[in-house]
């Protein structure tokens, strides 16, 4: 059996019968949500047939659930002809091997189950590589489980005697494959970095959707961008990141990124494997933290997302909380503001579109600090600057003068605006003019040209 085919032995399949095991542990890190575990299991496609629960002060070092419970579990496997046993906890390699030996059945822990779901969801080349990397790192600690031939010598011509063992060969193959995948992912990171530098040069703000899995991020993403991201009532329905250009009223063009959902006690190796994807989160101008406001565990889900953000270095970024599914609570959309009057939470429904105007208003306010919204008068020879302003941001109004000069109301990124002025050898105080009164010319004096608004083009 080839080493890299063995991961298929750990996969769950549609129609397989599974026995679920859950222990109530006092330790916070060992305590997992049972409802979430059921959702994970159904998302993987297996059929749960029976559930084994118990309570312990601490896990058994050898069998996790203890000798008595393991015997009960073995009987359940036999009675229900189960194909796999799924644990709602992280098991050590030794515990997994001992349990498989005791129950005569495949055993997967919480990490293995999440890896299996990720493997099903991966669609892009990058996603497949990231999942395989996480799986191989997980497999590297479990090489000896159930594979009795790994204890034999490799043998053969020139390899007789104490030659290389099969286990050592497999370890070397794993290391080589992991290095190859890391090299490919490094190229992906460089490609993403190149695209990120292009966005930074144009100062286009990056808005990343983050949040607990199944909070409605992809539904919101599709509604805002008219995208086609896969949406389902499943955990980790979206795995691969998707970026789309959007227009934020009052701000202009921005990039919206939909990322993988987080989960409580997300395995560390998954965070490592998906670091290239999560870089879109770390480099965001603004995070939209989407939360299912109708969920009973709403507050703990927010804490779980904050823990992952801290682990990947995104805890210092500005955050706007988006409380989704407000229609499930029967409440009206609204904006909650902090003590400084800044919006920090918006209540919306991504499914019905209720509150989208409030969401865009809040986003515009949070991004407004780095933007210039003013009237400028451009001389006739500054046609290139006018064209660049149209490219860089949003021209809200435009009026032409008889001498060829232009009066524009602009809304552009301040850093980009200042750089454009330097390139043209102009100063901001030379161009900025007061806002025009209705029917009046704000810049024309007795000797100045008049503006004809009827002949002036309007910005789209």
Automatic annotation (TrEMBL):
Mg(2+) binds at residues 218, 238. Its cofactor is Mg(2+). One of its GO terms (molecular function) is metal ion binding. GTP binds at residues 211-218, 236-240, 258-261, 324-327, 349-351. It is found in: Cytoplasm. GO terms for cellular component: cytoplasm. The keyword Transmembrane does not apply. It holds the Pfam family MMR_HSR1. InterPro entries: G_HFLX_dom, GTP-bd, GTP-bd_M, GTPase_HflX, GTPase_HflX_N, GTPase_HflX_N_sf, P-loop_NTPase. Residues 432-447 have a biased composition (Low complexity). Residues 431-460 are annotated as: Disordered. The keyword Acetylation does not apply. Residues 205-371 form the Hflx-type G domain. Monomer. Associates with the 50S ribosomal subunit. GTPase that associates with the 50S ribosomal subunit and may have a role during protein synthesis or ribosome biogenesis. Belongs to the TRAFAC class OBG-HflX-like GTPase superfamily. HflX GTPase family. PANTHER family: GTP-BINDING PROTEIN 6-RELATED (PTHR10229:SF0), GTP-BINDING PROTEIN HFLX (PTHR10229). This is GTPase HflX. It comes from Alcanivorax nanhaiticus. The gene is hflX.
């Amino acid at each position: 059996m080839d080493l890299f085919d063995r991961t298929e032995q750990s996969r769950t399949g549609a129609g397989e019968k599974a026995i679920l095991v859950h222990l109530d542990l006092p330790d916070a890190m060992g305590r997992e949500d049972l409802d979430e575990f059921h959702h994970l299991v159904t998302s993987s496609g297996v059929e749960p047939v029976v559930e084994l629960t118990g309570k312990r002060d601490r896990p058994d070092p050898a069998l996790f659930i203890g000798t008595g419970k393991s015997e009960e579990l073995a009987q359940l496997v036999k009675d229900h002809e189960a194909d796999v046993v799924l644990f709602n906890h992280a098991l050590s390699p030794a515990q997994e091997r001992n349990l498989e030996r005791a129950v005569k059945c495949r055993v997967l822990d919480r990490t293995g189950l999440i890896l299996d779901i990720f493997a099903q969801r991966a669609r892009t080349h990058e996603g497949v590589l990231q999942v395989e990397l996480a799986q191989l790192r997980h497999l590297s600690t479990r090489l000896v489980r159930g594979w009795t031939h790994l204890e034999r010598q490799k043998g053969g011509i020139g390899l007789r005697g104490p030659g290389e063992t099969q286990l050592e060969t497999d370890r070397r193959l794993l290391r080589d494959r992991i290095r190859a995948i890391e090299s490919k992912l490094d190229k992906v990171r460089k490609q993403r970095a190149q695209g990120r530098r292009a966005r930074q040069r144009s100062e286009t703000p990056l808005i990343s959707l983050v949040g607990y899995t199944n909070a409605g991020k992809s539904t919101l993403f599709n509604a805002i961008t008219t995208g086609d991201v896969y949406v389902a009532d499943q955990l980790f329905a979206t795995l691969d990141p998707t970026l789309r250009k959007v227009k934020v009223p009052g701000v202009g063009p921005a990039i919206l990124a939909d990322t993988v959902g987080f989960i409580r006690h997300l395995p560390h190796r998954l965070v490592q494997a998906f670091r290239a994807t999560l870089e879109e989160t770390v480099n965001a101008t603004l995070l939209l933290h989407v939360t299912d406001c109708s969920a009973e565990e709403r507050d703990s889900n927010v804490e779980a997302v904050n823990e992952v953000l801290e682990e990947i270095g995104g805890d210092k970024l500005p955050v706007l909380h988006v409380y989704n599914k407000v229609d499930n609570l029967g409440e009206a959309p609204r904006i909650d503001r902090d003590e400084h009057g800044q919006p920090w939470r918006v209540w919306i429904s991504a499914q019905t579109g209720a509150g989208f105007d409030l969401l865009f208003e809040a986003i515009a306010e949070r991004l407004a600090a780095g933007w210039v919204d003013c009237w400028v008068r451009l001389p006739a020879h500054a046609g290139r600057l006018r064209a660049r302003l149209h490219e860089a941001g949003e021209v809200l109004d435009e009026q032409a003068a008889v001498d060829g000069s232009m009066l524009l109301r602009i809304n552009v990124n301040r850093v980009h605006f200042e750089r454009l002025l330097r390139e043209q050898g102009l100063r901001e105080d030379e161009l900025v003019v007061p806002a025009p009164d209705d029917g009046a010319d704000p810049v024309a004096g007795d000797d100045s040209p008049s503006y004809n608004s009827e002949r002036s083009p309007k910005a789209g």
